[in-house]
Amino acid sequence: MNRKMTKAVKIGDVTIGGGAPVVVQSMTNTDTRDIPSTLAQIHALAKAGCEVVRLAVLDRDAGYALQEIALQSALPVIADIHFDYQLALLAIEQGVHGLRLNPGNIGARWKVQEVVRACKEREIPIRIGVNAGSLEKEILAKYQGVTAEGMVESALGHIHLLEEEGYDKIKVSLKASHVPLMLGAYRKMAECVDYPLHVGVTEAGTVRSGVVKSAVGIGSLLAEGIGDTLRVSLTGDPVQEIPMALEILRVLGLRNRGVDLISCPTCGRTQVNLAELAEKVEDKLSNLPPLDRPLKVAVMGCAVNGPGEAREADFGIAGGKGMGLLFKKGEIVARLSEEELLPALLQEIENYVKQYGKD
Ligand code: SF4
Hints:
The protein is α/β, with parallel strands linked by helices.
């Protein structure tokens, strides 16, 4: 896959853009002022595979909380600021590693200059985040509504404000809940600038609709080589976003983290409860630590086609009548009773984790 080359920016020790691996990020939904809860959620996000985290900064108390959070956080911390340049300055003083801020929204030019000066001193990048739901009135009037062109024009306006202050540690996002709209906006943006792009579908919804929207929206862009960091936005606990994000990257061959589970759709030949078997295997796989190398596991319904269909799998099982086969790399290595199948497969996976697990 040819990825569009962008400038690199650093958020703490994580590089975004410049050909670096696509970075997974998320946002806490705790009250930022509640330091223990926020740190606990950051820890859970990091454990799941998140690499950068963003926190909402609603008021000065939240701003002050950032100091301890940034110090103790397992991940680089981005402060999400909307309109108040003083909160941006406070967040920078507290030691955050990045800002999400639209300079056109914070008022007078001198305020932008103050924020840029502080960001320059600490080498903190700024993400310009255009959202289809909050485009400027003039742009809405010019384009007669929300359009990809309008979103790009809005982003370019914010970018130019920073560039005029001699600042180029910029990332850009152009999120919309409507997938064709966000696709159009990101594609146009990728033609206009070489800043790294943070890709995502905003307000994507609950797990069921959000995962599909994100996979289609984010996945399409990444498949075209567009995107340097991503967030899968889902309603609820942000930790659930991370396996989805990692899966999108793994499916596209962009990152190796996560396990590839293949299971057959079942048909008239299936004589075991394959759906239950596959779910149990999936449960096990979802709790694995990071591995040094990819792992592919197959759960197949029959011995006729199963091993052959799953030839590339590291391990697999294929059901039969009251029995089943355990196979490695498509080769049958044991004939087992139905009850023995799952434990035998899980044991193989455990051995693999012992050998290649990073933790
Ligand atoms: Fe049917 Fe066997 Fe293919 Fe599963 S692996 S769909 S049971 S033929």
